[in-house]
Amino acid sequence: MTIEVNGRPFDADPRPGQCLRTYLREQGWFGVKKGCDAGDCGACTVHVDGEPVHSCLYPAFRARGRSVTTVEGLASPDGELHPVQRGFLDAQGFQCGFCTAGLLMTTAALDEEQLADLPRALKGSLCRCTGYRAVEDAIRGVRHTEVPAAGEAVGRNLPAPAGPQVVTGTARYTFDLDVPGLLHMKLLRSPHAHARITAIDTAAALRVPGVHAVLTHHDAPERHFSTARHEHPTDDPDDTRVLDDTVRHIGQRVAAVVADSEAAAEEGCRAVEVAYEVLPAVLDPEEAMRPGAPVVHAKDAATARISRPHDNVAGEVHGEAGDIAAGFAEADEIYEETFRTQRVQHAALETHGAVAWIDEDGRLTVRTSSQTPFLTRRALCALYDLPLDRVRVVAGRVGGGFGGKQEMLVEDIVALAVLRLRRPVKLEYTRAEQFYGATTRHPFTVHVKVGARRDGTLTAFQLRAVSNTGAYGNHGPAVMFHACDESLAVYRCPNKKADGYAVYTHTVPAGAFRGYGLGQVVFATESALDELARRLGMDPLEFKARNIIGPGEPMISTGGEEEDLHIASYGLDQCLAVIRAARAEPAEPGPDGWLVGEGAALAMIATGPPGGHIADVRAALLPDGTFDLAVGTAEFGNGTTTVHRQIAAGELATTVERITVRQSDTDVVRHDTGAFASTGVVVAGKATLRASRALAAVLLDFAAAHLRVARADCRLVDEAVAYGPGGGSRIPLKELYAAARAVGADLAADGHFGGTPRSVAFNAHWFRVAVDPGTGEMRILRSVHTADAGKVMNPMQCRGQVEGGVAQALGATLFEDVRVDGRGAVDTAAFRRYRLPQYADIPRTEVHFTQTADAIGPLGAKSMSESPFIPVAPAFANALRAATGLRFTDLPLTRDRVWLALDAAGTRAAEGR
Ligand code: FES
């Protein structure tokens, strides 16, 4: 049979039951992406005879005799981009870009009528990164990108360097490569929340045709580790084995089957015979801390670094500043309440996965969807007793992370198989596995008690926070520390107390997720302060404004002052001024009969993690007079590659096109902690600044010596060094390179930053919402976000980060919920059961940036990737409180939950209660 793809005939027959998506990828059309394999996300959209189809649902054999177009065939034969491709480039209509091919194919097929109704037209197209505003602008032809002159890149709307590859489907993500002789891995997972494996028989599985190996706990190292990746491995408990003889949540790995095909590996999994001794399980963290509860990890506290294993406490935070009892005694008004946040999934469109092989030098090479290639290499070396130079870890373009890929969830088991078989092996999670085999946001229960004098001065601020870290403690203690820290420190109050517990249960593990615990606790604190202000008869925003810390004030949390943390720039006052101005503007009325209210919330976040975060960068002149910039950090849509080029271009007086970035590869620099904790700009960017500045000095020093002119008379101009009277003479950089080479000089320089000292960034959000009391339907009438990002290096891109963070937070505020049933099983393991925000769900948010310049960050910049998420849920809940008179304490604020509360309040009022 023949299928024509992008004008070329393909004669390969599909396998029985094969879908068009996998068929196309096997023919090398890697622009066709897998987001869900269930027709929910649209990432695999292609045209069949001009009609858009989800290729994951379309049987390949039905394409016989038809013409298929993928994103690679969307441009004209002479290479001219299709108008929608040009639109996505000009508007920067993507971040990670994993959804882009599907969006392009969907949009390219829309007629005028459909284009006029984008909420309907984009119903089957999910984007997890952008918040859809940039997508809409791309479709509407709004141009945002600029073309600045040499040396003027900083602060301008430069597009991502990978843009042309993203819109043509040639950007290479983790699995977009052809590896000869590749074997496929599938995982057998536990059906029990807690059980001991008493016997495991692999004989039948090994007899399945095509199966090469079945790995069980007998094959795994005895060593325990944490899947969390941190610069200091001691930040996390060592409670995990590659394969264990005890399972602690439904979905935990039990065995790995490696075979010629995914189908054979799946059949092998079904043939593995496992005998379990089922053990009692505990699913609730408060129950887990009670005496007699089943113990999740019966380990030695000191060696495993578990706070209190027999109480199921993975880590805890306790601290008091001042005298909390005296503070409450001093208060005229006290408010206390318990707030709860739910499990949320990262839902990056590219699932977790890795492909690994032994290279021609005999090195283990792992290509993985990771935010932390260097830390993953270090962990693999520790696990398998390998020297650092025998392992290489690389990341291609990563299709979204949001903290979820600050883990080693797949690389360890793939490496085990490769080391055993000496053959290339691939493991790619399904969308369902993302829900029960990856990590989630930590669900929190937070009891807040706050007191203030009648004049609105805070006197006491107390938290008791309990997080459910699930079956493993990856990130659990650190998330709890962070959650209790900046949430208290942003307010000036002499008496503070926090008690936090990260608690093990027999449920899917939680991990790092945008905001790292702050979003959960700030939902509670900002709601409680809003309520306290109302009880004092004060405007909630002005009450908060009265109590926030000011510039130069110490940031006191319950752990005392962190010595390397400073307010190196202060924009919180400007954030609040923007919100005051928005409130003062004439307001759009809500629909007739609806309740309308407005609310705000604010947040502060450190611009990097405590304990250091390392980036090494090397900048070098190339023979053609352009520059090479080697950075360790990964690009997963956070846009740091763009910013690194901008910083380097500014220092080297050139344009970004003349700077090539090599990244995400343990071979290119000495070390990089990774792209997490909002460090891509403030840490790796600072190392880039130092390397570029040092290279500029190297170039000028060499030019002065070579030309025998005064160093002070030399300066970099685009593609040359200018020298002589009035800078009238020039030596092109490529000539300079040749001159240096002739004398053996190296025109290169290194930059390093250790991530400390740190500054703080601020955000505030304001909503005006309307609620239908008859149905609970909610509508956002206006959404305003204001961010103190210091010097904004790329306003278009930074705005996208804010919008994407707000959109994710709105999903978590309104409906996203990873539900776990009474057995401990995730019962929302598909996009059609776990609802992600669609285009129609997300209103336009007005984004404002303050005018500040940070004394620590590179060129005055601060971080802005996690923090926009944090104030959204409390701002919405506060607006809902203003509209309805009801304080909602549990997320998500679903329509049925709101309606039930309104209905109950109405019943109480009618009955005079
Ligand atoms: Fe849309 Fe990342 S840019 S999913």
Strand-helix topology:
Blueprint: E1 3-5, E2 8-10, H1 20-26, E3 45-48, E4 51-54, E5 67-69, H2 83-90, H3 100-108, H4 112-115, H5 118-121, H6 133-140, H7 163-168, E6 183-189, E7 195-201, H8 203-207, E8 211-215, E9 246-247, E10 253-259, H9 262-271, E11 273-278, H10 285-288, H11 301-304, E12 313-321, H12 324-330, E13 333-340, E14 353-358, E15 364-368, H13 373-384, E16 391-394, H14 411-421, E17 425-428, H15 431-437, E18 444-452, E19 458-470, H16 476-489, E20 496-504, H17 518-535, H18 540-547, H19 572-584, E21 595-606, E22 615-621, E23 627-631, H20 640-651, E24 659-662, H21 679-682, H22 684-707, E25 715-717, E26 720-723, E27 729-732, H23 733-742, E28 748-753, E29 760-771, E30 778-788, H24 795-814, E31 846-849, H25 872-884, H26 895-910
Description:
The chain is of the alpha+beta class and 913 residues long. Helix content is 28%, strand content 21%. It has 26 helices and 31 strands. The strands form 7 sheets. A 7-stranded mixed beta sheet has the order 8-10-6-17-14-15-16. A 5-stranded mixed beta sheet has the order 2-1-5-3-4. A 5-stranded mixed beta sheet has the order 12-20-19-18-13, with helices on both faces. α2 (83-90) crosses α6 (133-140). The structure holds FE2/S2 (inorganic) cluster (FES). Residues 94-99, 127-130, 349, 400, 637 line the site of FE2/S2 (inorganic) cluster.
The total count of strands amounts to 31
Mean pLDDT: 96
End-to-end Cα distance: 75 Å
Main beta sheet: 7 strands, mixed
Rg over alpha carbons = 28 Å
Low-confidence stretches: none
Helix % is 25-40%
The best one-word shape is globular
